[in-house]
Description:
Distance between the termini: 13 Å
Number of domains: 2
Shape: globular
Radius of gyration: 21 Å
Number of strands: 14
Helix content: 10-25%
Order of helices and strands: EEEEHEHEHEEEEEHEEHHE
Amino acid sequence: MRVKLFILAASVALAQAPAPVFEVASVKSAVPGTRGGQVQFLSGGRFVATNVALNFIIQQVYELRDFQIVGAPNMMALIADGYSARYEIQAKGDESATEAQVREMAKALLAERFQLKVHKETRDLPVYALIPAKGGIKLKTAAKDDKRPPGRGGIANMDRGWIQGSNVAIPALVLVLSRSMDRPVVDKTNFTEAFDFRLTWTPDSDTSGDGSCPASFAAMQERLGPGPVPTNCPSIFTAVQEQMGLKLDPQKEPIEVR
């Protein structure tokens, strides 16, 4: 069962032990136009967020995906503003704090600075279940000479409508696919091996008029120069099925929300 965060503008909290807090913390707006961004849980009880939106900070602190954040209108308006407003956070707690303890301190910091409150409930939400397609999964097992631990590779955005990965696991693919869909993707493949893949499709937002996509690495090199690649790609649904032997099946999933 997936965990989802339900954000309230106000709630009555049950009496519980005081949460650990940072000894010092600075929260300020990032410099507009700054590129890149990350959230880090560091040794020495440190928490650092660099040029990131509030929505992303919440995802990292609570270990959630974007679709797992819903809530009261005033709090969601604050989060929506955070898509364009970026923050810089520097915070430090006890030097012996574990990563789990730093996360709890970060939650307390969000509650203090952004008045963040949470509670749990369950909802049926629309998702795309990633399942084996008729004919079986076509994923290529990762190269045996890859020195990285199985599933610890990466996925790169090679071009619009083209992603490519090596030595990755299904959870990583699910996260990337979710960014290109109108609803979250959940894994129901039962596929546990590390694999290499290349997936090409025509993005729904492609308004270039040529509807083209790269057919090979050489074609991508050509596309980066003048002129489009004269190879039409299918929709992402067809591409996932034909190129990977998987299917994006519209379903509803009972999800525990917070």
